[in-house]
Design a protein that fits this description.
Elements lengths: L1 H20 L2 E2 L9 E3 L4 E3 L1 E4 L2 E4 L3 E2 L5 E7 L1 H8 L7 E6 L5 E3 H7 L11 E3 L2 E3 L6 E3 L3 E7 L15 E6 L4
Parallel strand pairs: 4-8, 6-12, 10-14
Antiparallel strand pairs: 1-2, 2-3, 4-5, 7-8, 9-12, 10-11, 13-14
Length: 172
């Protein structure tokens, strides 16, 4: 039931953004890919999770931990969160005791060596280009490992060689 409510709220948020901007909505298989599309390009929506800004492709949330979702768009969004919110904001409030990890916490929690901290990050087969915005619900993380050779989707963006691979729950 919670997954259904989460999906409905996420779908509503996407439709709301799309209607206001006359954009075509994209509904994907997981919460990491809430994107709004016009005719030529893709634009990320800013997520604010318990007051911490992140982008949809830099976050993972266990749907069991979501208490509420709010939508802010237009001038109000940019007024509150600046230029990065130009495509709208989804504000998530999570249940008490939900623990989020940023990149620094992930390094400590999963004992990533100092040398490996500078490697590219891949979250669920997608390159994370903004480490500062990485924010993961600890209960959504399945594994964190160093790959000797990353074989994933975006080879143009990622240099060949090692990468930090984070596998997290995906909302279906």
């Amino acid at each position: 039931m919670k997954k259904l409510l989460f999906f409905l709220a996420l779908s509503f948020a996407q439709m709301s953004f799309a209607q206001e901007n006359n954009l075509e909505k994209i509904i994907s298989n997981n919460s990491q890919n809430v994107k709004i599309r016009d005719n030529n390009n893709f634009q990320n929506v800013l997520y604010v999770i318990d007051g911490m800004p992140t982008f949809s492709d830099c976050s993972a949330i266990n749907v069991q931990n979501i208490e509420s979702i709010n939508v802010i768009k237009g001038e109000r969004a940019t007024g509150l969160y600046g230029y990065r919110a130009k495509n709208g904001v989804l504000i998530f409030t999570t249940k008490p005791n939900t623990q989020f990890l940023n990149f620094r916490n992930i390094v400590k929690e999963f004992k990533i060596s100092k040398a490996d901290q500078f490697l590219p990050i891949v979250l669920n087969k997608h390159f994370v280009d903004e480490k500062d915005y990485l924010l993961l619900d600890k209960s959504a993380i399945i594994s964190v490992k160093i790959l000797e050779e990353q074989p994933f989707v975006e080879p143009v963006l990622l240099p060949r060689g090692k990468a930090i691979y984070i596998e997290a729950m995906e909302t279906k």
